[in-house]
UniProtKB/TrEMBL annotation:
GO cellular component terms listed in the entry, alphabetical order: extracellular space
Record's keyword terms, sorted: Signal
Family (UniProt): Belongs to the menorin family.
Keyword Signal: yes
Signal sequence, renumbered to the chain: 1-17
One matching Pfam family: Menorin_N
Name the record gives this protein: (African queen) hypothetical protein
All copies of domain Menorin-like, residue ranges: 24-270
């Protein structure tokens, strides 16, 4: 009986906090490149909400055999952490902690996603409740990006086998350094909408967009989210260190889109300049 009362006492404020986060997605916090055991342990011990990690085909350090999905960012092809061990570690943490950690798996090739299907399956079952995002850059984007996108049709088809997962689909980008201006074109937005419609996507979708480009793209991004509203769609604004970002325009985009429709994954310095409404204090 005592354990049950304690569980209720723990779960009530956690549930309220999660409800508040859904009203203001910009308060969700991120760990990046959780691609080895040390980073995974640190991220699980932190207060961060979501663990973003990269998935490639490669080998566990010191082991031979066929390539398997591992946690690493190209061009690396070795790691001390496999995708299976990463997901198991997060699940084990969530089994004994009231405040759940979510994961965003960033697949760098369609081959990695194909070989990950059986590994992901146990964690995408309805009874598993922690957030699971499946991410890839599936279309070429601004500004004349040359990075090869992940095969769009195959990615969407395979992701549909995991209906509880959030489908996070975006564009490759060429921005930063000497490139300080640009935007998402109406054609690029239209290509994404056609993919979503032609493949009858019916799971929650978020569209990752680069802050410096998104800040100049408010009309088309509003159209994108409006046209996909039946999928509980959102945008995830991200930025690399040093990207040129028009802060006032980005703030206007976020507030116009709505805090309940905008995840924010940008460097702390940029986030502070946005002066967004703070999280609501949850009373116990």
């Amino acid at each position: 009986m005592f354990a049950f009362v304690v569980a209720l006492a723990l779960s009530a404020p956690v549930a309220l906090a999660e409800e508040e986060a859904m009203k203001n997605l910009t308060t969700v916090t991120w760990a990046h490149a959780v691609n080895n055991k040390t980073y995974l342990e640190a991220a699980l011990a932190s207060e961060l909400s979501m663990l973003e990690a990269d998935v490639v085909l490669g080998h566990i350090t010191g082991k031979d055999g066929p390539p398997i999905p591992i946690m690493a960012h190209p061009p690396a092809t070795t790691s001390d952490l496999s995708l299976g061990d990463f997901l198991t570690g997060v699940a084990q943490y969530n089994n004994v902690n009231a405040k759940q950690k979510g994961v965003k798996l960033d697949f760098k090739s369609i081959e990695a996603f194909e070989k990950a299907q059986d590994i992901i399956a146990p964690f995408s079952k309805p009874e598993v409740t922690f957030p699971l995002w499946l991410n890839a850059d599936i279309l070429p984007g601004p500004i004349k990006a040359t990075t090869k996108p992940v095969d769009a049709e195959k990615f969407i088809q395979l992701a549909s086998k995991h209906p509880r997962a959030v489908l996070s689909i975006g564009w490759t980008t060429n921005y930063g350094g000497n490139i300080t201006e640009g935007e998402y074109s109406r054609e690029q937005i239209g290509s994404m909408l056609r993919l979503v419609n032609e493949h009858n996507v019916n799971q929650t979708v978020t569209f990752p967009v680069r802050a410096g480009l998104a800040s100049n793209s408010q009309p088309v991004l509003l159209d994108l989210v409006r046209e996909t509203s039946s999928l509980n769609s959102s945008i995830t604004v991200w930025s690399s260190e040093g990207d040129n970002v028009e802060v006032d325009r980005l703030r206007a985009l976020i507030l116009t889109m709505g805090l309940e429709k905008t995840y924010l994954d940008v460097p702390h310095e940029l986030a502070a300049k946005l002066h967004l409404p703070p999280p609501t204090n949850t009373k116990n």
